[in-house]
Write a sequence for this structure.
């Protein structure tokens, strides 16, 4: 009798239904633990890309300002209205005529306007030199700073638009 029970419950040809349920439950628990980690990882990647894009744009704005201050850009007079900053982001891509036309006829600061990874567009929030730091409306005179227009929160709790 004992041999008959042993043969019936230890069939070498397959698994029992209970074993399949236990394995499925373990896999379900593991999958539910991994899902939040993957969403945090994806958000962290977008935040890293946002930091890189902001740094790239701000560096280009600073290089434009330095070129104006050094007199490398032709036809730009520094006054209160523009303060030596670019009139728009497209000026950084299209380039500006230089004073040294023989060697470098156009000075470009960006290859393209980076995509905002939070909004997936090239539309950025702009601040002019004359605007207040907290303003969300661009004065239109020049581009002193940029920010994302996303209303989301970062992993550290700060707003993306405050970066």
């Amino acid at each position: 009798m004992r041999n008959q029970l042993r043969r019936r419950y230890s069939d070498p040809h397959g698994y029992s239904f209970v074993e399949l349920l236990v394995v499925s439950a373990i896999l379900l628990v593991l999958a539910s633990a991994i899902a939040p980690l993957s969403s945090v990882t994806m958000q962290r990647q977008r935040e890293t890309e946002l930091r890189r894009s902001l740094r790239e744009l701000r560096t280009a704005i600073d290089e434009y300002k330095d070129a104006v201050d050094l007199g490398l850009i032709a036809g730009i007079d520094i006054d209160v209205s523009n303060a030596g900053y670019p009139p728009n982001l497209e000026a950084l891509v299209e380039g500006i005529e230089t004073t040294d036309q023989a060697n470098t006829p156009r000075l470009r600061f960006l290859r393209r306007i980076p995509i905002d990874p939070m909004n997936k567009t090239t539309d950025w929030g702009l601040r002019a030199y004359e605007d207040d730091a907290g303003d969300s409306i661009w004065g239109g005179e020049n581009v002193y700073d940029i920010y994302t227009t996303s209303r989301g929160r970062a992993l550290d709790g700060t707003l993306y638009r405050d970066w």
Notes: The longest helix spans residues 17-69. The chain has a mean pLDDT of 84.
